[in-house]
Amino acid sequence: MTTAWGWSDRLSLSYEPMDETHQEFVQLCAALAEDNPATFVQRLDALIEHSVHHFDQENIWMTETAFPPAACHKQEHDAVLEVMQEVRRRVASGEEDLAVRLAEELPHWFEHHVDTMDNMLARFMLTQSRQNAELQDAQQLSA
Ligand SMILES: [Fe+2]
Ligand SMILES: [Fe+2]
């Protein structure tokens, strides 16, 4: 028997606002694997709604911090959202096997995305806020 996919420390990026959002993504994404075709579209809608806000928040952080690979990161968000919406349309019109494929593929996409783009963004924001704090300390000392 395979263990159900879920949150683990392996996914933590030590940046609390992002980890909280990612826990919600993992919960909604893992719920797609539930074997109940009658409610799949409803569960996918919940994940899509979450993802729109999740990705918007990260896109805002990237703009605020002038994150260099912002375009590349945003493109990954747009692409996966497009896949979710396409699967939603096709499952709703009878291609139910795509539901299982999406539920299997999304955890892999997410783990890779967290390891690369989100990890880089979290490190970048943590470094920036540490540098800002150091700058403020230095300014107070010289005042
Ligand atoms: Fe994320
Ligand atoms: Fe992201």
UniProtKB/TrEMBL annotation:
<dbReference type="InterPro" id="IPR016131">
    <property type="entry name" value="Haemerythrin_Fe_BS"/>
</dbReference>
<comment type="similarity">
    <text>Belongs to the hemerythrin family.</text>
</comment>
<feature type="domain" description="Hemerythrin-like">
    <location>
        <begin position="15"/>
        <end position="122"/>
    </location>
</feature>
<dbReference type="InterPro" id="IPR012827">
    <property type="entry name" value="Hemerythrin_metal-bd"/>
</dbReference>
<keyword id="KW-0561">Oxygen transport</keyword>
<dbReference type="InterPro" id="IPR035938">
    <property type="entry name" value="Hemerythrin-like_sf"/>
</dbReference>
<keyword id="KW-0813">Transport</keyword>
<keyword id="KW-0479">Metal-binding</keyword>
<protein>
    <submittedName>
        <fullName>Hemerythrin domain-containing protein</fullName>
    </submittedName>
</protein>
<keyword id="KW-0408">Iron</keyword>
<dbReference type="GO" id="GO:0046872">
    <property type="term" value="F:metal ion binding"/>
</dbReference>
<dbReference type="Pfam" id="PF01814">
    <property type="entry name" value="Hemerythrin"/>
</dbReference>
<dbReference type="InterPro" id="IPR050669">
    <property type="entry name" value="Hemerythrin"/>
</dbReference>
<dbReference type="GO" id="GO:0005344">
    <property type="term" value="F:oxygen carrier activity"/>
</dbReference>
<dbReference type="InterPro" id="IPR012312">
    <property type="entry name" value="Hemerythrin-like"/>
</dbReference>
